[in-house]
Amino acid sequence: MARSSSNTMLWLLLAVFASLAAAGAGRGDDGRRSSPQVYVVYMGAVPPRTSPDLLLESHLRLLGTVLKRGRRADSVVVHQYKHGFSGFAARLSKDEAAALRRKPGVVSVFADPVYQLHTTRSWDFLQQTTTTAVKIDDSAGRARRSSNKNKGSKAAAPADDPSSSSPATDTIIGLLDSGIWPESPSFNDAGFGRVPSRWKGVCMTGDDFNSSNCNNKLIGARYYDLSGVGGPSPSDGGSPRDDVGHGTHTSSTAAGNAVTGASYYGLAPGTAKGGSAGSRVAMYRVCAESGCAGSAILAGFDDAIADGVDVVSVSLGASAFFRPDFSADPIAIGAFHAVAKGVMVVCSAGNSGPDAATVVNAAPWILTIAATTIDRDFESDVVLGGNNSAVKGVAINFSNLDRSPKYPLITGAAAKSSSVSDTDSASHCEPGTLDSSKIRGKIVLCHHSQSDTSKLEKADELQSAGAAGCILVNDAERSVATAYLDLPVTEVTSAAAAAIHKYIASASQPVATITPATTVTEYKPAPVVAYFSSRGPSGQTWNILKPDIAAPGVNILASWIPPSSLPPGQKQASQFNLVSGTSMACPHVAGAAATVKAWNPTWSPAAIRSAIMTTATTLNNERAPMTTDSGSAATPYDLGAGQVHPTGALDPGLVYDAGEDDYLRFLCNYGYNASTVRLIAGSALPGGFSCAANASKDLISDLNYPSIAVSGLLGKATSRTVTVTRAVTNVGAQEAATYTVAVSAPAGLNVKVTPSKLEFTRSAKKLAFQVTFSRSGNDDGDDDAAAKGALSGSITWSDGKHLVRSPFVVTS
User: Residues in domain Inhibitor I9 (predicted)?
Assistant: First the structure.
């Protein structure tokens, strides 16, 4: 325990030092800034009746007022934002940035941050685990895909689901990511009609990319200056082409064509398809391998709004430990203005789990996605000598070891170098702790924890020392199959490792082998929440429940860039890859949102979010409540409203709607003053707007959100009652409908809904209700429940056909 805690503290200190180093970049020894760096100047909404040219001119005039004589404003500008919002990014000194902060009309000025990417069967699994059948009118017909010219895989006819029906062919999903590989069969445009006339985007020419790489499926591709994050600049190698793989994977997950014969070198075989296979794709390359520039993220949002996308998918974010405020967060800023223009924004929750309060991208106008597993596993077993049965392991490997157990087996502790005194580190096979002469030609049994050196680094070290293979004992990360291409490696649980240790202790010459991975389907239980998925509550406000919903994000098969090397025994490169992260979960929901938008084109982003959240499922494929991958019961802080149910979201019955005014009131309650809110909103606010005199973070709970979060209620000294208000709109086929409520509340908490029945008519389509929370706290059991720090449950409205479920969490 001490070892794990010390390593965790070390990583936190390194993160702090890295942050301080980044903040101090460009400073001389005396602390003064010796060279300019990029700052973002955010100026809120575009003023009414202002043309882009006039706005750009005003930006340059403002910038010119703070620059030293001889520096031209247009020579320091990196980006200008002129469509969805107003502002610019420029290379400035610290003093120049400070001077701009004091200028009228400026909301915020902040150093250009570097964000990180949050790095088949998943869609079939989502259809299998749904509980409500929704019939879709298919009279408009289905688009057909023809055979793709790429060898080994071909575009298939659209699947029998609503995402491939014709309305979706006019929806456009924009992705802010690492670029795209246009030759992938996932982006073949066979069967697609003309690009929607409302599309205003472009296909930029760049390095190894020209306009012919776009088509009627991939309709747009832009790239931005990434020189600040180690990537190319527009004038030096810039291109929409993906050289990381991440953007190609997320794009095909969201909207890729159905491609038959897909697999990762024979693993996970089947048809790979996107959530909205009929949607068009637009890529905005804002990331390089080393990170994503905040100034480029804002430029991507600005262009996506003007280009005409319907959904923006963002699989990246800030560090869970250094989250900026909303007015200094490029994702929060860009998403706010996109949603104000009717564009849905879906973001990954982050990969900093399972620790609490690590969720990012938590602004209430963003749909925030956690990651879960699917019912597929990759088994790679350990075969022991003697008459022992095989020990089950999990990994993606292409082991070329003999199937017979003939390789000497040794523990890391037994292979400890004589120059190392720390046996615990050797048992974990930390680099530099083992004697290479003791492990050459052998399979090494190593323990592993999340605070260790990475698994891949350990494998590389063992391979360099001549080991024949490795068995990692790893409980926390068992649900994610790691790919080991060069060394036969598998991962086993502590319980399974006990059998291996027992065998080693009993055999005079223990031997073993590791089998290559095989695909296991219908694995149970699934889904479970992945260990890496960031958890709530949000560190920015506990009165908005985040994440919002969960989706498949573990070992997802989707398109990839051509690899630089092949696994042992493989002769042809795979066009697909198996990747994990909330990055992979996010485009699943983006695809679902595009489908909901296609069938309900007038719905607001909030209505689409509500439909997705209130129809989510909380049961696994054993018909039991979902858990985390450690086996504990999953809470709303783990998975939000539950696992996305794409088909059910098409007919939610009721929706919780919200608009820009609601989010502006949120900003008031969060703590922004009226003048700042007026700048952010621009012409959307009346001239006499002011924040309410009683604005407070407690009132954030009243935002018309599909989930409820209330803080300050629990604790032995607390006896107060909290009432929140919600309003639902009937979007069902029946104008006259009666919904009754059912409450699921934990011990220690009283929950009352008033009224308990909602009567909708042709003239009464939107009705309000109140939910009152109070402590029962009459016995020790209730106090024990409250002592846990958070109590959760749900309220569900039903008319006999629809189930409209909203989770709630109450905290101290």
Answer: 38-118
